[in-house]
Amino acid sequence: xxxxxxxxxxxxxxxxxxxxxxxxxxxxxxxxxxxxxxxxxxxxxxxxxxxxxxxxxxxxxxxxxxxxxxxxxxxxxxxxxxxxxxxxxxxxxxxxxxxxxxxxxxxxxxxxxxxxxxxxxxxxxxxxxxxxxxxxxxxxxxxxxxxxxxxxxxxxxxxxxxxxxxxxxxxxxxxxxxxxxxxxxxxxxxxxxxxxxxxxxxxxxxxxxxxxxxxxxxxxxxxxxxxxxxxxxxxxxxxxxxxxxxxxxxxxxxxxxxxxxxxxxxxxxxxxxxxxxxxxxxxxxxxxxxxxxxxxxxxxxxxxxxxxxxxxxxxxxxxxxxxxxxxxxxxxxxxxxxxxxxxxxxxxxxxxxxxxxxxxxxxxxxxxxxxxxxxxxxxxxxxxxxx
Length: 387
Hints:
24% of the residues lie in helices and 31% in strands. It is α/β, with parallel strands linked by helices. The strands form three sheets. It has a ten-stranded mixed beta sheet with strand order 8-12-11-13-14-19-18-17-15-16, with helices on both faces. A seven-stranded mixed beta barrel has the order 1-2-6-5-4-3-7. Strand 15 and strand 16 form a beta hairpin. The longest helix is centred in the last third of the chain and has 19 residues, at 368-386. The radius of gyration is 21 Å and the shape is globular. The N and C termini lie far apart (73 Å). The mean pLDDT is 96.
């Protein structure tokens, strides 16, 4: 038996479809993601907090769900919007159907709608606030009115500090390395790792931490609001600033801590929200984008080499290139719209990248940024040893 569901947008648009997850109501900013694979990683990415994700690829769920591909301990996205949920899931790693997973996690989701029409609306008007209503109420006029009212009442992500909502609550050691077919994730003895990296958790994806571990890092994960003095007291070899959701500008605690860390000679590497926070701490400004960048097929150019990389993206805010101070240099740009994708300090061993280079679910073009971070750590260690 199918259950009704509707998607209502703040502009008055209403889409009628089928409930493919839990019954109930959810609200958030509606965005579209152009990735063809990786729906499990997308759903569990904390950077999608308070967002309803529209997947433009039409068939979602055909490889099922497994216990290994989660990017966090729970769900990141507030809702899922798709065109078609296949009747069968087929993959040797599949453990359950997507619909079963959505119901177990309590996520409200809708299928059987025209995602092309929805994507055109979002492309032309920008990201809109929306509401998914699933269950019997979605078939009534009162339900439609309720969903429209909820969509219009959502305040939007601009001005929202979400990093402190999704961050870890305690300092932990991360010891898991990257995944290998047939073996799963490796476990590393922290005592054998040559580099100590303190990672700020603003909503970190697990595979980012795994890539640091696999490159010899003993990773200490700290809450978003950890003061700089506490991090410096740990005597790290480098500091990592993670991805995360929301508007970077209200995260004054993070901006202040990063600014203090940048006064030292510690290597600093930021990704996504961490990139934006590094820029803000260096004196630049950020702006809300019309519909952001979400997908695994975004071309980005390295300005130094001219090399074009295909990247994974998930952000609704960007660093304003016109606001860069003299000591902050642009390193990467999006070839879709020319927005800034990377910066580096000219006076400090600090750099950042807007996309998600952790290759989960892919692509892997930007993974060498992690190697660059390690090289900065090694250079500092060599300098210290020489002196």
